[in-house]
Amino acid sequence: MTYILALILVTTSAFAQDDLAAQARHRLASPNLTEKAWGVRLAAGLRLPGFDELLIAELRANQNLRAAKMDGPEYAYIQALLDALIERETAVPAEIIEPYRSRWPTEAVILLARTKDSTPTLVAMQAEYMDDIRWLAISNILLERRAGNLFERMLDGLPATHHFFVTARAKPLGVPGGVPGGTGGITTEAPKRSFPAGFPAIALYRLTLAGDWGAVLIADGPQKVHYRRVIVPAGGTVDWPDNSRASYPTARFEYRLEYLARLTGRTLTDVRSIFQAETIIRWRDSASLARQIENRMDEQASALRRFAAEAELHGANPLRIEILPTLTDLRPAQPAPLPQPKPREVILDPHSPPAAPAAPRTNTNPPK
Predict the structure, then answer these.
(1) Residue 358 burial (CB < 10 Å; 0-12/13-18/19+)?
(2) Staple partner for 355: which of 50, 249, 277, 302, CB 3.0–4.6 Å?
(3) Per-residue pLDDT averaged across 205-209, rounded?
(4) Is 284 exposed, middle or buried (0-12, 13-18, 19+ CB in 10 A)?
């Protein structure tokens, strides 16, 4: 009896699924975008089998809608398709996502993270202007995949700094720290988002550094980036702050140091000491000061070359890094301003052998 009852339930469920699948296909075939969106929602919400290919085909066939007015019917339909594909955890070919990545960059990043052929697209996106959190998400995916030349891209154009402090004391009372990164956030009233009347509930996607409840990790990295699904109810609205204006406490410079540390197996402290050097020099005379500045910048240049050589640069062309020095005069009596040291360009050639390590130095001169 129990077996017969179970068989009846399974058969009934199968018939119900077949009926729902037929409804979803019928609505997706409609010329009306509202009907089509309901077909997409039905396929996504019930996880009906066999719909991944159909949803991908719809995304391919509707590329002409990618310039649609924000939150209008055409936009809402594309959003419904992207939402369904993310919800169903579908692997969408990168070529299908490519046309939509400018208008739907967050959804594109989420889908590209699941697609193995997407690395070239992600590399191209990483080089474009974008807010920090989306850049972090893309960089995390490329780091996880150990994408070729990621080390060179993190290193290329990254400035190094060297802060010199001149003091009259053997042991100065205190030296200011390095240049802090980041700026405060911009607070604005959040705009509202809604979709046209008649459309089903459709989710929007937001990236976040907070991995709290409801957030889904995109890819691991020095700064973990998650996405959050925010449902716009049928006929309703949601608050939607402009994510592109978000500002985070750490500057892009610091992020790149973190990736370089991961890629080379070094600590962040070690990498920072190479790219953000500080030297305390006790004042004697101008000639001694100039000589010590040159020596320390020589040492930093050698450290940068060793760092690049040990990481095995794979690019064909040399990279150029500029050391940007600053000088702060901490002497109580300052008869004349000290000349500021000049920037130094360092060539990192993948074909050159690493420079020999310099002899260790102390940060201060011994007292006279």
Answers:
(1) middle
(2) 302
(3) 93
(4) middle
